[in-house]
Amino acid sequence: MIVTLPNIINNKMKHLSNLKLTLLFFALLAVCTLSSATTRSNLALKRGEQLYASVCKGQTTPVSFVYGGKAYSGLGKCRLLDVSRNETPDRKEATLTYILDNNVRVRVEAALCKEYGQVEYTLWFENVGTQPSAVLEQMESADMLFAGANPVVRGCLGDHDNQYAPYDKDLLKEAASFRSDGGRATHGCFPYFDLVHGNGGTLIALGWAGTWQADFQAKGSSTRFVAHNDNGFRSVLMPGESVRTAMVVMLPYTGRNADDATNLWREWFQKYNMPRADIAGNRIKPFVTAPFSADTGLPNSDGSISERFYTWRRTLDRIVYEKIHPDFRWFDAGWYFDPEGNTVPSNWWGTVGSWELDTIKWPGKSLRESNEACHAAGMKVLTWFEPERVTMVDALVRNYGYKPEWAISNGYGVITNNIGNPECRQWTLHRITKMMEENAVDCFREDNNSDPGTTWPIMDRQEEQQTGLPRTGITENKAIQGHYALWDSIIAYCASRNKCTYIDNCASGGGRNDIESLRRSIPFMRSDADRTTTALRLAMSSTFNKWVPFHGSATKESVGELDPLARGGNPIYVTRASWLPIHNLAINFTHDETLDYNQVRADLSEWRRYSQLLTKDFYVLTPYHSQTDTSGWTIFAYHDRDTDESLLQVFRQESCPDSVYTVRLPYAKRGVTYSLYNEDTKETASMQGDVLLAEGLNLTLSKPKSSAVIHVTGKKQ
Predict the structure, then answer these.
(1) What is the DSSP letter of 16?
(2) What does the pLDDT read at residue 37?
(3) Is 251 exposed, middle or buried, given 0-12, 13-18 or 19+ CB atoms closer than 10 A?
(4) Distance (Å, rounded) from C-alpha 557 to C-alpha 570?
(5) In whole angstroms, what is the distance from residue 261 CA to residue 419 CA?
(6) Percent of the chain, pLDDT > 70?
(7) Contact assessment for residue 527 and residue 552, using Cβ atoms and an 8 Å cutoff
(8) Residue 410 and residue 388 in contact, taking contact as beta carbons nearer than 8 Å
């Protein structure tokens, strides 16, 4: 359906798979709404109301599809069967069910966040009949027009090859198209867009963890946005079968200022989109993680494969003695038996699937004892799993009750575990929660080191051969539904045990950071790639931070991603370039006799002093520099609007010839005197807001590859 509106948006809690978890999530969201309402000046609440009304009116629901050879633009051709509405002081929700034919019902789930004017919706198709449906195809999650002159789309690309590089496209000069086919949604492209049109804009995100495409095309003062998920979908629905579109999230704003748009999004995202820390609904606060795996003295091919029952105590005792106080022990890949029941000395990647603790490495209850010792030291424990991939299928069948039909092989070494199958998903869930329960694990870390986009079509073709009916895309659709359902079940399990009610989200780094995944998870590591250079880490922070405000990165610097940690610890330049709300320590705690623990404590104390500011408004005050361009300055500012307190992170990069840089603070207020404290020199200076805003602050760093941290506080005269 094409809808002409000045601007559009959407916010609704995803429909969860069971009532208990639904109630839990709404309870957690309710906690957030107790804080004071936003006072942002660029809110577009009326436009949000307009969009919500449009989504909830069949003729203007902004979707399109073809069913039985007939094209539908909106749902005006369908008979409305049922409407369910709910309204609280903070949000509106609606579920509208339409009759497509005797077999198929179409359900629209929509919501409006009143505080921000954010709207979201998802479309579901369900076969409630006894016969296969007609063919459903060309299923567009969004199909709408945005009115407004000078349309521009801006944002960043995805992880891996594109390394979150920014773009800014004038749509009157060129159309913009983004497509992801690998099955991990945020590799290559990134389904988050800032569409600027007229005297405002719309922030848009697609909630789908698989394949997708989004297109923007403008003519005059009209811009068409079309998006779909499950690329190439063309299938009948079998009796009882459901498929869905991506969740479309939109947040409108006024004005064309990119910083204002960014910070509206960051505030809404943390208040309404992020998961909560626990069943009580507490907000997640910045925290520190510490892996023990590099500190074993044994060969380590990545993950925690080198850890043993006799390696952890020395590390933990040293951490406690040195008063480092991390919040999490990070227990990564390699802790499991291979499917034949053999210990895994190095090949963690090629041996996944059993999720059975390797009792050669961890005899008896030794892992649980180590985790309980971490608990006693004030640390939680996160543990790595990879539930979407299996290996050695025959052995899994023979030894662990796996069924061979659950495995989808592409013939080139990648075998997908089909969690879109409810029986397979339940088997997988049991393996995960059993391990977590037996070993006192607090947080589930999920990885996926393969592209399921290469395997899903294989099962589609098998079904087509068996049924003689079109089934393209059905495996992916069920798999992504199953993926979200698996996470919901894990979170429900964790909530029932007072564990972490969020997931550590990884897929070869940043492959699964779509907005619906980020309602359940946090990317503790936004990318594998920035384990290499600090220049890449700064480049990624310049762009990724604008869309995902709470996450972590690596904290080391090395030529290769898996190269050993540098002896002596990280220079302060590298440590500061790694400042994010999640701080992942990279330290050989006991096997590096050159390590200066006084410096480690000082660096960590500095991060802790300012960590809460890292969740506030974010400004990039210098031009973007890619990882290959180290000739300039990179400066970030984090500003707390409520207290007028801010943090400047200043970096003179490796080959920068200029020792002085002048930077203006766009958030400084006229008539306010600001105190500027330099963490390195311990000096304090005073400047007027008028000067910081108009003329700027002169910053001096005498050497390349050096940094400064400046704490800025304002006080009205």
Answers:
(1) -
(2) 87
(3) buried
(4) 8
(5) 37
(6) 95
(7) no
(8) no
CATH of domain 617-716: 2.60.40.1180
Ordered by start, the domain boundaries in the chain are 4-15+42-268, 330-501, 617-716
Give CA–CA dist 90/649, Å, rounded.
Answer: 36
**Which residue, among 262, 246, 261, has the nearest Cα to 205 in the 3D structure?**
246
- Measured over the CA atoms of residue 482, residue 487, residue 491 and residue 493, the dihedral's sign is positive
Q: How do 380-385 and 328-331 pair as beta strands?
A: parallel
Spell out, as residue ranges, where the chain has pLDDT lower than 70: 1-35, 717
Q: What is the largest CA-CA distance in the chain?
A: 78
pLDDT tens digits, residue range 199-224?
999 999 999 999 999 999 999 999 99
Q: In Å, what is the CA distance from 444 to each residue of 325, 369, 384, 528?
A: 21, 18, 7, 19
Contact between residue 506 and residue 427 where contact means Cβ atoms under 8 Å apart? no
Q: Which two tokens stand for residue 209?
A: 């963890």
Question: Which residue, among 526, 517, 448, 457, has the nearest Cα to 487 in the 3D structure?
Answer: 517
The residue with tokens 């389904």 is 191
The tokens of 245 are what? 């579109």
CB 145 within 8 A of CB 224: yes
CATH of 330-501, one of 3.30.300.20, 3.20.20.70, 3.20.20.140, 3.40.630.30: 3.20.20.70
Helix (H, G, I), strand (E, B) or coil at 225: strand
First to last CA, the chain: 55
List of residues 6+ apart from 121 with CB closer than 8 A: 10, 12, 55, 61, 108, 109, 110, 111, 247, 248
Cβ contacts of 564 within 8 Å, gap of 6 or more: 294, 558
Unique residue bearing structure tokens 């107790």: 34
* Type of residue found at 231: N
Task: Give me the residue label for tokens 């005792």.
Answer: 317
Angle at 530 between CA 525 and CA 535, to 5 degrees: 135
Taking each helix axis from N to C end, the angle separating 474-496 and 19-32, rounded to the nearest 10 degrees, works out to 70
Task: Copy the structure tokens of residue 558.
Answer: 């090395």
Instruction: Tell me the CA distances in angstroms from 552 to 289, 503, 524, 527, 666, one per residue in order.
Output: 10, 13, 5, 9, 26
What number of CA atoms fall less than 13 Å from residue 157's CA on the CB side?
18
The CATH number of 4-15+42-268 is 2.70.98.60
According to the model, what pLDDT value does residue 24 have?
47
Spatial distance between the Cα atoms of 347 and 119, rounded to a whole number of angstroms: 46
411 Cβ contact partners less than 8 Å away, ≥ 6 residues apart? none
Cα distance between residue 501 and residue 493, in whole Å? 9
Instruction: For residues 189 and 153, give the distance between their C-alpha atoms in angstroms, rounded to a whole number.
Output: 14
Question: pTM of this prediction?
Answer: 0.95
| Predicted local distance difference test score (pLDDT) of residue 604 | 97
Q: Output the DSSP codes for 304-347.
A: TTT--TTTHHHHHHHHHHTT---SEEEE-S--B--TTS---SS-
Within 523-564, strands assigned E span 552-553
pLDDT the model gives residue 564: 83
CA-nearest of 442, 377, 450, 446 to 415 is: 450
